[in-house]
Amino acid sequence: MADMIRCPACNAETSASNKFCEFCGSPLNAAPVNPTAPANGKKIEEYKCPACGSPLVFSTDSGKLKCSACDNEYEVGTIQQYQEKRASLNADIDRILKEITSILGIDDLED
Ligand SMILES: [Zn+2]
Ligand SMILES: [Zn+2]
Question: How large is the average pLDDT for residues 76-86?
């Protein structure tokens, strides 16, 4: 299956398997200098405060994610790592729960 991605330089659609844009030759996998910098005060729904679970808001003043509830500030990269670790942890927990339920002979645990 051929995934299509957009060239960051010329915006042409090109195959994701290409290392370089077939139209302009720009590298396709280069990380953007400022990865999707959100507007000031914009809520980033998928980022939650590790301390209290409230939504984090991007502050262009500090260039960090700030919690709307407890005022803690976090580096965007730190939060991204945190979310990734959490996601993989949740996947582990799901897997372990499935193992336990199959050992116990329960079909499925509701929440
Ligand atoms: Zn291009
Ligand atoms: Zn918080």
Answer: 89
